[in-house]
Amino acid sequence: MFIPKVIYSVFLISLVYFVALTVYYMFLAVVASLEGAKKELEGAGEDYSLVYFSTFKIPVSFVIPARNEEEWIADSLKSILNLNYPEFEVIIVNDGSTDNTLAVLDSILKLRQIDTIYAKHYRDGVVRRMLKSDNYPKVTVIDKEAGNKKAGAVNAGLNIAKNRYVCVIDADTVLERDSLLKVMAQIEKDPDRIIGAGSYFGLVNGLKVKDGTVMEYNFPYNPIIAYQNIEYMRSLIGNRMAWSRYNATPNVAGGFGIWRRDILYELGGYSKDYTCEDLEFTFRAQDYAAKNREKGYRILMLPYYVGWTEGPSNIRSLISQRNRWQRVVIETSWEYKYMTFNPRYGYFGFLTMPYYIIYEVFGVFAEIVSVAFVAFGAFSGVLNWNVFLAFFLFMLLSQAFTSLLCILTFMEGERLFKVRYILYLISLTLVEFLWYRWIISIAKLTGTWDFLRNKRTFDQYARPKRA
Amino acid sequence: MHYNYYSDIVWAIDWALVFIIILTSAVILLYAAAKDRRWNRRRDGLLGIKKDLYEMVLSGKDPSYPACQLFISSVTPQQFMDIVTNRNKTAVFFNAAEQGFLKNCFAIPKQIERLERTAKFSLNKWRRIEAILCLGYIGKKETIGIIKKALSGRDSDIIYFAIISLGQIRTKESARALLKYLRKNRSNSYKIISILEGFPAEITDDIFELVRDRDPDVCQKAATLLSKFDTSPYIKELKDLVRDDSAGIRAAGCDCLASCRICKEETTGILKACLKDDNWLVRRHAVLALEKVMGNKAIEEVIDMINDVSWLVVDAVRDVMIAHVERAVPYMEKFLKGSYDIAKKYSLSALEESGYLAKLLKNTASDIDKDRALHLVELIVKAGYLSSIESAVSTLEPATRSKIAGILAGIKQA
Predict the structure, then answer these.
(1) Which has fewest Cβ within 10 Å: A275, B56, B140, B191?
(2) Which of A117, A119, A387 sits opposite B5 (nearest CB)?
(3) Which of the 8 DSSP states describes residue B65?
């Protein structure tokens, strides 16, 4: 009597959970769609010459933490040096690389050691030396010992960053030429209040990149990468664009994130106490914004595709990356749990935090438990196969539908994908629940387990050599 | 006990989802195809305009109205914006001359009337915005009234683009409208001052009026803007700004004083006093302002600020030292001899960035001012900044390099 009751309860709770989730995604898709369209129209009417030629233009400091990035650092750096933006400095932090990262940098920059001022404002680790470029005077390289994670490397860069806004990007991010101009044009609308901004970036895997410029946008048909493209759409456009509408952005991603330097200073820079640094810092900034509500601080998420970053191209690497992401999601959600349904945090407390806790932290258990129980019920004869099939199909279809909504929302922006590739993505969404979803679930489960084991290391997954 | 699993409801949801998925997939594909088609049509339209323009020029006609009336009446506001802003430059690029011709052609009464009607009455907000922007880019003074009206609306997007549009018509009237908006609203203030700095100097009286505003935020923005123009006529009143309660206004006041072209003596004393301000922002602006007013003579006034507690002030001092390195050298020498590490490092950084260190090293190997150069290099070596010397040497000719290596070995031995 007990088992059927449990299965029945799980069935009903799961049904309500997934219906609620689908409705929530529909709501986010509608809002993201409206917000994305608005931002695209705003961008189209913008007078970029004002941003470019005004003496009031806002200079930006790029901080690029690099650890064993010999494959991508050259393209990443060249893409920055090619940027269509009038004033910026570049600070690359070689975070104890054991490969040829520094040699690659030297070949482009012609580096020389300098005895310059280095004041420690943030927790950074041991800095060995500072190097300046002869070829590009606006580039400085900090050579530091490994340790203190990516946060320490970014903090080392922040120590010498001079400009009002700091743009932190990954060393494998290749930026689009107009990316910074587009984002800064939005920030310049209200620099007194906009303290942070992120924008859409996709996966560079498969794209033809030469000297820091994407020559051909030939998106790969490797399903692992294609699924990640869908996930990036869902995460960066489908969800964060919608949350941004309500100033409830939870994450300015490390791949491309702009922050006002005084806020970074006020908050003590990035923290090395977490597996990754970007999510936690955004939560901290939201906390700070809520505590200084009268100042009306905003963190923006924009729909412009600003660049491309490397993602895992096989299942093993994917699991390793998502394990890390899951740990940081749990660490951060746990640390800032007091924000949930807390009126002081407004939409962030009511719209974003519950999603993080219910879906990002516990969602994996909900999925596994519901499918397992209903399958057990069918096998043991407690419920008939018709119910099982209906339920399984519901999960598969609701998953496919939410992914399709994200593709549709994404389509409002630039024309990136060809019709043939879109057709491929649509077909992938229909079978996502059959295999890809479970790979992510495994990664999330191992991530949760590692969190419980108190693992806080930043594991870099094995990356293939570039062709 | 029998449990109702509502399988019929779940199946109904499933079928509904199947239907929605098919529909959404179809919409996505149609949307993608339509978007491609629209993009191609947009590109073809622009290419057509370019072709018409060139045909007209090649046929020997003057590329202005009425010669261009044959094709210009069919140009849409969206195409006009594409042309004047080159926002679709990947598709078709219009150079300044082409833009100029087409701008003149587009400014026919019929088009303006159509745009004015859209700007006033269109129910589609973004159509209104496009029309408002077009009116601005056409640049006819007569249309300012309609754009000004948009500025007093409630919709923040319409207001923002009305500001951008007014910025294209650089007249006193449009400046007044923008300043009036700045007085009443804090939003978009940064954009407005960015726009107004490109306006002719005749608007300075109106900006100065705003400097007198009681709202510190407005006053600061206006003072910052005013500092981009010659502030000589207002210098008497501007002196009061550096005594304001707000640090932002005091800093902007320093900038304003530095922009006075004919009142060096008057402002120097005031700026010197600002070096003692409690706030780092004011001190930093005072350092840079003094450099602007006094040129290389500012070194004597600002050099002691190298001991300032704020690194942003010290950084400003370093910038002044780089700009006037010859005059700063005796002070740097003193710092290098001393024990204050920050002053030493900033001096060295200034010597390096100004290229003076390489010059010094060259001098040690030649007969130009050799003793002084040797003395300074010796100080740098003794201070332990060998990397800087090493990298500066690496930029020199091989022959000079080996000579300097010998000299450095001598210093090291001594």
Answers:
(1) B140
(2) A387
(3) T
User: Does the pLDDT at position B323 exceed 80?
Assistant: yes
In chain B, % helix, strand, coil (3-state, to 5) comes to 75, 0, 25
CA distance linking residue A394 with residue A396, whole number of Å: 5
Model ipTM? 0.91
Q: pTM score, two decimals?
A: 0.91
Q: What is the mean pLDDT of residues B293-297?
A: 93
**Residue A298 host element (H or E):** strand A298-309
* Cβ–Cβ under 8 Å, residues B288 and B316: yes
- Name which of B29, B39, B198 is nearest A419 (Cβ-Cβ): B29
Q: Which helix or strand (DSSP H or E) is residue A413 part of?
A: none
A372: Cβ contacts below 8 Å, ≥ 6 apart: none
Rounded Cα gap, residues A73 and A152, in angstroms: 19
What is the mean predicted confidence (pLDDT) over A284-295?
96
Whether B160 sits inside 8 A of A114 (CB atoms) is: no
Spell out the alpha helix ranges (H) of A72-222: 73-81, 101-109, 149-160, 179-187
From B14, B6, B1, select the one nearest A11 (Cα to Cα). B6
pLDDT on residue B1: 62
Q: What are the residue ranges of helices labelled H in B227-340?
A: 235-238, 247-258, 264-274, 280-294, 298-302, 311-323, 325-337
pLDDT tens digit sequence for A399-431: 999 999 999 998 887 778 888 999 999 999 999
A1 touches chain B (CB under 8 A): yes
Q: Is the Cβ pair A387, B10 closer than 8 Å?
A: yes
Which of B152, B151, B111 is closest to B135 using CA atoms?
A: B111
Tell me whether residues B193 and A162 touch, CB distance under 8 A.
no
